[in-house]
Every structure is written in C-alpha cells, then in structure tokens.
Amino acid sequence: MDIIRVSMLGMCGVIMGFFLKGTRAEYTAFITMGIGIMILGLAVGKLEYLFQTLGNLQKSISVDQEYFYTLIKMVGITYIGQFSAGICKDAGHQATAAQIELFCKLSVMVLSMPILLALLETIQEFLT
To answer: Which spans are transmembrane here (predicted)?
Structure first.
C-alpha cells in the first residue's frame, strides 16, 4: 500500500510542476525537492526495518561489524546521490547532476576497497 501512496505523491508533484512550468518555472525545482523530501520521510520506516534486519543478520553470522557499517554507508551514499542528482536534473543542471553521480560512484568504490582486499585475502588463504 505504501508504493501506491508514494506513486500518487510523485504523480501529484509532477502534475503540480507541469501546471506551474508555464507560469512560474522557478517553483518546479522547489516542488520536486519538497516531494522528494516527503517521499524520503515515508522511507524512514523501511530504513528502520532494513537496519533491524541487518542487526539480526550480524548477530547470527560472525562477520566483522565494519562490513555492515560500510554496507549501510554505501546504501546511504547511493540514495542521497541519486536524490540530489535528480533534483539537479529537474532544475536543468545536468552537468552538476553528472558530477554528483560521479562523486558518489567514486565514494562507493573507495568504501568498497577494504572489503575487496579482505575478500582477496580470504581467497588467497583458501588457495594456499
């Protein structure tokens, strides 16, 4: 039922932006930002469930806690980056959106390096 609520909220924002685009085009970016913040507010419940499930998974599997924190950071970077880039694209700033997306991809890549190195060390231990 949440997906219907979020979809309707998004469609209402698009319709409002469409009507204001002809008369007050500068307000469309604010409408997009407001709708996006409202949708992120609705997603907080989903994030709470995700963190709770990751906590349960961490308790049942003996894996370093830092890996879970890194995973959460990666998810956060991708969502915030996608949200910010989408707002920039809607405002007509495609170059800024592309730079945000590039920075987010590089940040995720940097965060994943320690995990990749640990995985390679584990594989190397099995091979020797």
So the answer is: 6-22, 29-47, 67-88, 100-120
CA-wise closest residue to 72 among 92, 53, 94, 91: 53
CA atoms of 93 and 79, how far apart (whole Å): 19
Structural contact between residues 25 and 58, judged by C-beta atoms closer than 8 angstroms: no
pTM for the predicted model, two decimal places: 0.67
The average pLDDT across 94-111 equals 93
Residues near 118 by Cβ (< 8 Å), separated by ≥ 6?
A: 64, 67
- Measured between alpha carbons, how far is 107 from 35 in angstroms, rounded to an integer? 26
Tens-digit pLDDT profile for residues 75-89: 889 988 998 888 888
